[in-house]
Design a protein that fits this description.
Elements: H1 11-23, H2 25-29, H3 40-47, H4 53-63, H5 79-82, H6 119-134, H7 142-153, H8 157-174, H9 177-182, H10 187-196, H11 206-221, H12 230-243, H13 249-258, E1 261-265, E2 268-272, H14 285-297, H15 301-310, H16 315-348, H17 356-383, E3 392-394, H18 400-405, H19 407-420, H20 434-444, E4 448-450
Antiparallel strand pairs: 1-2, 3-4
Helix pairs in contact: 1-4, 6-7, 6-11, 7-11, 7-12, 8-11, 11-12, 12-13, 12-14, 13-15, 14-15, 15-19, 16-17
Length: 460
């Protein structure tokens, strides 16, 4: 095999051959490709004017090794270097290319929390409002009563109670065994620091202040000379719901209907007894729903049932419902025969085979039967519908009139059962405990069934 004789070339061809052997031909050609495929040293070569291939290869050969080292952390840019400075590629950064970077919040810094209200000042303010209201010897107006209740409602006691509860949770977490093991090194220092702190004077608890505000509002509403109007009742329910103290709501709702009305006669105040069964003494549905929601939110079953008995189960509410929803349909039913007789008389004029009196009788009987049967079927379908029922249903054989009258009571008990029971549908009926068993018996006495097997999913 013959070998080509060696010819002495220039130093340029020798260095080019050496670079091709080391990096390969593709590496030298890749210098003309976009700079994304190269590292930072070769990007400079791309952005610079075109240069011979041997210069690019030699530059990559001499600078590729330092690129393998770890990059040094760059110091954060100063405002002088950012504003109007040139980039390392000698291009002036424009406002359109630059993007605003979000400010990074320091890990060590924390946002300042709102300062907890001074409990002593709150207590003093509530005492002043209560004493000033009780000192009035006349019958207070509705505006004066609302002003006193709103003055008590302006205090942010609930916020202080939540803050203290969070502090207790943090302290309980620190007392756990894991926290104790993690903080062994600093236990001595903490104990030494705590020993130097003088014993703090006993302070008011937020729960006590909340109770005091609730008792002050109750004292204002139950004062003998105060007339509980719907506006006063709504304000009181809103205040107790905000404080999370629904225990007194059933009593005040019952007092709204039965409290004697004060009257000024000859310079002295006399009290006129009130009939709690009047239709006008019924509590509005919005106020009743707000009181019920407050009791459910506080997880107080006794207060929730008490609100139910004072609102939807009272005789005043039933009479109010009859007047508002039953008078018009009953009037239409009473007038219906007369209207049907007039219609039958007009239909008899179209008959030529029978005399007029006989035709009127036949037409009236036919129209009356059609309207009566159709209306009866529609009423039965409306009274026996159970699409709105979730867990509480009517017992078999309950009269339709009873179902219509006490539908709001059943819906309220259904809401209570769903709030105090399991939320999963497949666990309905598995609740245990004395309170829930009492609730089942309470519903049975009112012709209601909790979690009827026949109406449960998959059983009907």
């Amino acid at each position: 095999m013959l070998r080509r004789p060696y010819q002495a070339g220039s130093a340029l061809r020798v260095s080019q051959r050496a670079c091709e052997l080391v990096f390969g031909g593709r590496l030298i050609q890749s210098a003309k490709s976009p700079f994304v495929a190269l590292h930072s040293v070769r990007r400079l070569a791309n952005l610079s004017p075109a240069s011979p291939t041997w210069k690019i290869a030699s530059r990559s050969f001499t600078t590729s090794q330092p690129c393998l080292k770890a990059k040094r952390q760059q110091s954060p840019p100063t405002p002088q270097s950012l504003g109007g400075a040139q980039t390392r590629f000698n291009r002036v950064s424009s406002s359109s290319d630059s993007k605003e970077t979000p400010a990074v919040e320091d890990v060590g810094t924390t946002t300042p929390q709102a300062a907890a209200p001074n409990l002593a000042e709150i207590t003093a303010a509530v005492d002043r409002v209560t004493k000033a209201f009780m000192a009035n010897t006349d019958i207070p107006s509705e505006d004066l009563t609302l002003t006193a209740l709103r003055a008590c409602a302006q205090t942010e006691v609930r916020q202080a109670a939540d803050i203290e509860e969070s502090h207790h949770m943090v302290a309980a977490a620190e007392d756990r065994p894991v926290s104790r093991l993690l903080g062994l090194d600093g236990d001595d220092a903490k104990k030494a620091g705590r020993s130097n702190i003088p014993a703090a004077t006993p302070v008011l608890r937020p729960e006590d202040v909340v109770d005091k505000v609730s008792e002050a509002a109750y004292a204002i509403v139950t004062h003998p000379t105060v007339v509980i109007t719907p506006q006063v009742l709504a304000e009181y329910v809103r205040l107790q719901a905000r404080l999370g103290r629904p225990q007194t709501l059933p009593q005040v709702l019952a007092l709204y209907a039965s409290k004697p009305k004060p009257k000024l006669v000859a310079g002295s105040i006399t009290y006129i007894p009130s009939n709690p069964n009047k239709a006008e003494k019924a509590v509005d549905n919005e106020i009743a729903d707000a009181a019920l929601d407050a009791a459910i939110e506080a997880k107080n079953l006794e207060a929730a049932v008490g609100v139910l008995e004072s609102t939807y189960s009272s005789k005043a509410f039933l009479r109010s419902k009859l007047l508002k929803k039953a008078v018009l349909p009953a009037s239409l039913v009473a007038v219906a025969p007369v209207a049907l007789w007039v219609v039958a008389t007009q239909l008899a004029q179209l008959n030529y085979s029978l005399d007029n009196a006989t035709a009127v009788k036949y037409a009236f009987i036919g129209v009356f039967c059609y309207v009566g049967f159709t209306g009866t079927i529609g009423a039965v379908a409306a009274f026996t519908s159970n699409d709105q029922m979730k867990r509480v249903t009517w017992a078999i054989g309950t009269p339709l009139t009873h179902r219509w009258l006490y539908e709001e009571e059943r819906a309220t008990l259904d809401k209570i059962a769903c709030a105090f029971g399991f939320s999963e549908e497949h666990r309905f009926g598995e609740e245990e405990g004395e309170e829930y068993l009492w609730l089942r018996e309470y519903m049975l006495k009112r012709s209601m069934i909790l979690d009827s097997v026949d109406l449960m999913p998959g059983m009907n």
